[in-house]
Every structure is written in C-alpha cells, then in structure tokens.
Amino acid sequence: MNRKSSKKKQKTNDNKMLSWKETWQINKMALLLIHRSQSGLIATSLMPCVWSALTPYVGIWLLALIIDELSGSRRPQRLLTLVLATLISSALISLADALLKKRKAVEEECRFYYLRKITADKMMDMDFCIVDNPDTDRKLAQILQNQSGGGWGLIRAFRLMEELLTAILTLFGGIAMTITLFTSRVPDNAGTLTILNNPLFLALIIAVMLAVTYIAPLLSNKADSYYAFNSNIHTLANRLFGHYGFMGKRKEFAADMRIYRQDKLCEKYNNDKSGAFCSQGYFAKLARGPMGLYSGASGAVSVMFTGVAYLFAGLKAWAGAFGVGMMTQYVSSIVRLAGGLSSFIGTLGQTRINATFVKMLLDFLETPNVMYQGSLTVEKRNDRQYEIEFQDVSFRYPGNDQYALRHVNMKFTVGRRLAVVGMNGSGKTTFIKLLCRLYDPTEGRILLNGIDIRKYSYREYLSIFSVVFQDFTLTDLPLGQNVAAAMNYDGSLAASCLQKSGFGDRLDRLPDGLETYLSKRLNKNGMDMSGGEKQKIALARALYRDTPFIILDEPTAALDPLAEAEIYSNFNAIIKDKTAIYISHRLSSCKFCDDILVFDSGAIVQQGSHDVLVEDTAGKYHELWQAQAQYYNSQPNPQGSPAR
C-alpha cells in the first residue's frame, strides 16, 4: 500500500470518529453496564486512583520543608519532627495503598469473566434465528478480537475512566502545590529578572506550558488513531494467528497434522513477512511513516515542557523569590502537574477513539429479538395428549431467496413414532427447527392443540421438547451433571436414563460413577469418551428431561451395529408414551416408526408406514430404500441364506 492510498484510507477511517457528545453518552452507558455486571468494581477501583493521585504531594511537601530547614535554621528538633512525620506518613500511605490495591485486585480478577458474561448473556437471550445468522457471529468475533487484540472496548473504557480521574486529581493537587510559584514575586533588586513579575510574561509562560502539554498527547492520539481505525486489519491478522499459530497444540488436529504435514501449511502464514504485524506489513509501514513520526514528535514535545518548567522555577529561585526547599517542591509538583495535564488530554483523545469500539458492543447488545414471545401457558396434560399440525408451512432463511420448505402440511399426536427421511438438503433439519420454534415460518402456521405456537410462552413451548442434535455438545463437567444439565440432580434417575440409552455397562466401569469428569481438562481423573459413548450420554440427557416430544437427529450414527441393535430392541421401553421424531439416513430405523415423512427439495413428497412406502416403486422412499438395500439384504445369516 503506497503512501497516497494510506493517507486516503486514514482519511476515510477518521470519518468514523464520534462527536464529543456521542463519546460521553457512550461512555456513560458503558460505565452503567459495568456497574450492573459487577457493582463493586467501580468503587474499589476509584479509591486507589484518588489515593495514588493525591498522596505523593504529601511527600513532596514534607521534603520541601526538610530541605528548607537544612538550608536555613537547621533546628534538630524541627528536623526530627519532619523526618518522623515523613516516615510515619509514608508508612501509613503505603499500608493504605496496599489494602486498597488488594481489594481492587480481587475485583479485577473477576472483571474479565463478568465482562465476558455480558456478551454470553446476550447470546443466550437472542432468538436462535439471530444467533444462527453468520453476521451475528462476525460481529461478536470482531468485538472479542478488538478486546483481546488491541485492547479496545469495554475494558479500556473502564481503564480510561480510572486514568481520567487520576489525571484530574493530579491536576488539582499540582495546581494547589504550584500556584505560589506564579504568585511569589522576585525582589525588586533582582535587576532584569524582575520581568518574571510581569503579568504578561507569566501569561506567556503559562501559555507555552499549556500549548506544549496539549500538543504532546494530541500527537500521541494521532499516532494511536492509525492503529485503532484500522482494527479490521489487525483483527483479521489476530484471527489468522489464533488459528494457524496454535494448530500444533490442538489435540483434535494432532493426527492430521502428522499425516498431511499441515505444519507446512501453517508456516506459510506464520512466516509471512508481509502479514499485518510483520516487518513488511501494513502497520510496520505506518510505524516507519506517519505513526512513528507522530509518536516521536509527541515524545520530543513532552521534553520541552520539563525544560520550560525547570528554567522558569530556576530563574525565580536564582532571583531570590523562594528558597531551595520550595524549588524542590515546585519542580516536583509542576512535573506531576504536567504529567497530569498531558494524561488528561491524552486520555480524552483515547476515550473518543475507544468510544467507537464501545459503540460496536452497545449496538450488539441492543440487537432486538424478532420472534414474538407469546404469553399463553402450555397446558401440562397428565395424559400428554398433544397434537402438532403444520398448515401450509413455507420457510426461507433470512437473506436467502430460495425456500428451504414449501407448502408443508402434516399432523401427528403424542405417542407415535415419526421418521423424517430424505437426501441432504431436502429440508429435514429445517422442519425440526420450525417444530421447535427455533425459527418461525415465513408462510403458514404451526399449531399445538389447535393454537398457533407463536401465542405460547416461548420458554414454556421449548420445555416440551428434548432434542439430540447431530452436532450436540457435552461439557467437561461430571457425567451426572451432563445428563441432568444441572449441578444438582437425581442420581438414580440419571443412572436409569444412562442404562436405557445403552451406557449402563460403561457406567459400571467408571471409577467415580456419575461424578466422573468427561475429560482431563478439569480433572486429572477424567475419562475421554468415544463418539458412540457421547451419543449415548446425549440420548440419556434427552430422556432425563422427560418431555412429551423427543427428537433424535441421527441417534445411532456413531454407534456400532450391536449398540444400535440394543437401542432399537429396547425402543418402546426407552421412549414409552413420548412422541419420537427421527431424522435418519439409515432407513432400517424407519421400520420401528408408525409414520414416515419423506422430504425432497423442501417438500413432503410421501407420507405413510414403511410397508406401504416401500411397496410404492415409483416413490422416493422406495428409491432410497433400494439404494441402501445391499446393507440390509446382502449379509448372509448364520444358516447361509440371505438375510431379509
């Protein structure tokens, strides 16, 4: 990227800078958000800021008195009193500082988790259709990368608040300690140095100091803005590094890394000198160009203030306006004053830059839900007589012009076994998502006992379903907690569900039974489970919930034939009076079902029992059955005749 295009890019990015009014509104909202998530953090963080900003002036003041006494009367009793006061105050200040910082450290240890919980809670509160949108994942990834990569966002907003308060208090303390520097007069017999008493000269000195103090952080913020407003570049670079830079230590990649030497693939990205942060990358060019220039200029200007301050205080002391002790106080205080003013201006600039990133988070948190939540209570029927009906349901995913389902009409009741079959992409999974109300139909409606499911309380409606998704997840927590999806659970019920799902023998061999952790990440005695064992645990979790509807997406895909046979032989005992809905590619499982829905191109093309559908030679089910028939019919039985 050449310098011209770099300048053009920077100009475009500068347009993202928020107004000061927007900046303060956003930071106010950010602090309220932090306070709601961790109420004790702000108070425990501000107290050390106040303490550390003001207490150094106590030492400066006492030191000035000691130096004045040494250069003047040199009274032993007075010196002893001042030294003891200095030692005692230093000890008390240090003790209080340690206590305040200890309390702050406790809160800060939890800060990351509380702030990360903010986005986690929002994701849980979002409609699934929004969470499932790739754009939501992209926005969240951008926010988290801004936080972990550049440090921008909510955490920096809090740190900037601390820095701003510290700077303001430092300013007040510095002004209080240095005001007499400007009001003390040079003796009239000081000759040409009496010009130091001239109000215009004093105004000029103050103006120079303020200008220098203002320009230094302004230049520093300008340098930082190049990095901040090119966050999309370093975010992508961080994501690439996070993937390729750590593939070698990820267990799930270990086998493939060795077989296919994927480490060579990683080297291409990890050794690319033109990468964003590398020696020939975009930010390296900025550092050698405008960003480095502004940073260097900021440092040079900062040194100028110290020189002006020392010169002015030194000339007044030379002229006899005050003694050596006061000279020490003024120089020390004015340097702190300059640092406070510089920090104040710099923090203001950083706050304005950071507000753009905080706004990104706030916009994400304000993402509205689009699904009507409903208010009707789902009837808790003892007889579990529920009826589901699809009435001319059509659906297309957001941003997609193609319909995933078209004109679906069907009805089924609790207690029946329903199989959903079809080729990949035929609409099976979409059908289940609509049934569970993870999405709402684009057209048509779904009824539960004659009432549109959108009118029911959303949470209550979800509570009548147990689902084993094909891409289900288990936590690293103990087995029993995984089955119950809760910390406290009924151990006998959990064991019974595991027994029904075919996990009973494995449970008997586990050293800690239901308290066995499902990996070694959280407990060294944890056990790694195979894919089939995990699927049995997921099935037990669905049974433990004891809902009228149980939905199984490829329930035996990871099981061996014997385990699959065990599940189906105990099928009725496992499901009991529940409605079981299967999504399956293994048509042999359809024999156990009362009804079968055959999907093709988003529509139900056939419906009926296995015996009826398999006899329809022109139908899609017969075609699918014949494609798999070799697996059902070609294996010889023990007597040597073909199995049927």
Quickly describe the structure:
The protein is α/β, with parallel strands linked by helices and 644 residues long.
Structure, explained:
The chain is an alpha/beta fold and 644 residues long. The protein contains 25 helices and 10 strands. It has a 6-stranded mixed β-sheet, sandwiched between helices. Strand 4 (443-448) and strand 5 form a beta hairpin. Helix 2 packs across helix 15 and helix 4 runs antiparallel to helix 15 (324-365). The two termini are 69 Å apart. The model is unreliable at 1-15 and 634-644 (pLDDT under 50).
Fold topology:
Elements: H1 3-14, H2 20-37, H3 39-54, H4 56-71, H5 76-125, H6 128-131, H7 134-150, H8 154-183, H9 199-228, H10 231-244, H11 254-259, H12 263-270, H13 282-288, H14 290-319, H15 324-365, E1 387-395, E2 405-413, E3 417-422, H16 428-435, E4 443-448, E5 451-452, H17 458-462, E6 465-468, H18 479-484, H19 491-500, H20 504-509, H21 531-545, E7 549-553, H22 561-569, H23 571-575, E8 579-583, E9 595-600, E10 603-608, H24 610-615, H25 620-633
Parallel strand pairs: 3-8, 3-9, 6-7, 7-8
Antiparallel strand pairs: 1-2, 1-4, 4-5, 9-10
